[in-house]
Amino acid sequence: MSVGIAADERVARVGLLKRVLLKPELGALLGAVLVFVFFAALSDVFRSPGGVANWLDPASTLGIMAVAVALLMIGGHFDLSAGVQTGTAAITSGLLTTYYGVNTWAALAISLALVLAIGFVNGYLVVRTGLPSFIITLGTFLMLQGLNLGITKLVTNTVQINNFDKIIGYDVLHAVFASEITIAGADFQIAILWWVVATIAGSWLLLRTRFGNWIFATGGDANAGRNVGVPVARTTITLFMITSLAAWFVGTTQIVRLTSIQAQAGFGQELIYIVAAVIGGCLLTGGFGSAVGASIGALIFGMTSQGIVYAGWDADWFKFFLGAMLLLAVLANQYIRRFAELSRR
């Protein structure tokens, strides 16, 4: 009798361990707590309301993109053009309004349609050719990089678009994309609120909808998914378009907040988005991850980037910390993937 009870207890403990380890956001949450405690011990400013506002600011726009990139990675793909698409969206809106006098809302609609079309083309080419998304979107990245620079120079004779705050309707745009909320004497960007909304929406999509099941099935085993009726092609294209939608939102936020945009905006950010998603628990092989985990990864990024400054260290150390966190996350995720495979047997 006692042997049977002991066996049941062991099974229960193993089951609990599986449920904990297979939560992709738990490791990221632990990492975020450790990062916060570390920098809070080094700097009083870091844990002050003003300090919190400062490190939540970069985390917010990164987090919006990280959620979309995480969905795509769970679906088994990468988008190396995600970063440069933020610049494409902002440059399109900026040129149409400030240089060609296009109605503000029409310009925003055109820039949105443009990046959605880019996302559609990326997804369509991945589905139709069977080539790795890494290669397809690398080509898109290079083309958009050249177009952003070339067209901006051609129209403005510089590499920057200015005076976005002079357009009609700017006050409304500022209220939506760049206003601030004062809490405890500190100004928090409204992008933080949109980040929370994006995280909730991404989690709901993944965990409460049929489309979320399709995402996991597509990333886990596309062929098996097709055999049970999952529309793999449609799911893949939609995920690329969701990433483009997030890029439009972040690009619009940047140009509204700064009132100008550089032609090089977004270059190199795509790797940061992927790093945030991986730190948050997304597997590079697809089929595993969460929106909450990706947001926590973005939070770790924000705390580290500002924490190093508050600690009085050279900012160059940030890249070291980022690389170390990525390496640890990949190793941890590899262990989790193996554990997940064993748990299914």
UniProtKB/TrEMBL annotation:
Topology of this chain in the membrane: Multi-pass membrane protein
Compartment(s) where it occurs, according to its Swiss-Prot or TrEMBL record: Cell membrane
Sequence intervals crossing the membrane: 26-46, 58-78, 105-127, 134-155, 192-211, 231-250, 271-297, 317-336
InterPro entries: ABC_transp_permease
Entry annotated with the keyword Membrane: yes
Keywords carried by this UniProt record: Cell inner membrane, Cell membrane, Membrane, Sugar transport, Transmembrane, Transmembrane helix, Transport
Main subcellular location: membrane
Top-level taxon of the source organism: Bacteria
Protein's job: Part of the binding-protein-dependent transport system for D-xylose. Probably responsible for the translocation of the substrate across the membrane.
Protein name per UniProt: Xylose transport system permease protein XylH
Organism the protein comes from: Actinoplanes subglobosus
